[in-house]
Amino acid sequence: MRTALTSPVAYALFVLPTILLYGLFFLWPMLSSSFYAFTDWNGLEDYRFVGFDNFLRALRDERFHTAIVNNLAFIGFSVFVQIPLIVLMAMLISSVARLQRFYKTAVFVPSILSTSVIGILWGFLYEPEMGAINRLLGFFGIEPIYWLADPDWALLAVLITNAWQWMGFYIVLILAAILAVPRHLHEAAAIDGAGGLRRALSITLPLIRPVISVVVLLSIAGAMRVVDIVLVMTKGGPVGATEVMASYLVNKALGVDPNYGFGTAISLIIFAFALLLTSLYQLVFGHNRDEGIEYA
Q1: Whether 274 contacts 221, CB under 8 Å
Q2: Exposed, middle or buried: residue 169 (CB in 10 Å: 0-12, 13-18, 19+)?
Q3: What structural domains and CATH numbers belong to the chain?
Q4: Using 50, 70 and 90 to split pLDDT, how confident is the model at 282?
Q5: Structural element, H or E, at residue 79
């Protein structure tokens, strides 16, 4: 057994099935379909090779520019609004002595619901005349807002709905990290006179920073692939106000005048964009050195 475990052949035999499956179901489909990004093909008739025309067409399209900006808005909302709220709520739940499991379950439930259900549910909440949100605003004398029909409000409405769906999943991740912090550190800090806020800033946050980094990375990846909530709630409208790159892909590849080749080109652009963002994030924040814990 010792000889087998030191043999590279043994490791290769264990790894080879996974590599084969990965190549068969991921690498080969991706590489083979990438060819069609350089063609004009509707998925049924014979394709026509067009070179880089599909990429140039996408990059010149004003609606695609809007989709890129909207994806960046999803990323910004996730990182600068959603993540702080996630950390705050996780800390609040971790400090609760009673019904902690209930709160964990309550915040996690939206993450397991179908996006279609969530989109329809929030569509009723956003309804201009009978929706609960406008009725609540009416008590303060605010006129009804056409959340999903007004270009000025539609993107914000979708951002809030998407955040509500996924915050619970990330809260559970952060909460698990917080509960794993050694209790004796907090006890020692309390003996030295550190209050709850000081302990949170000087002990909890530094120790859960690696998990927060993972949550930020997952949020960026999720913001890049967001599409289902957009298609369910607005289909990219009104007038492209909520269009994201993935919904632009769906509308172009599977729309009224489908062009599978053009859609594949867009998918490669999305892949390159996501790869660039995650690489930049890893380059900037992936090599932070651990800092000592200070609470005095």
Answers
A1: yes
A2: middle
A3: 45-115+165-285 (1.10.3720.10)
A4: confident
A5: none
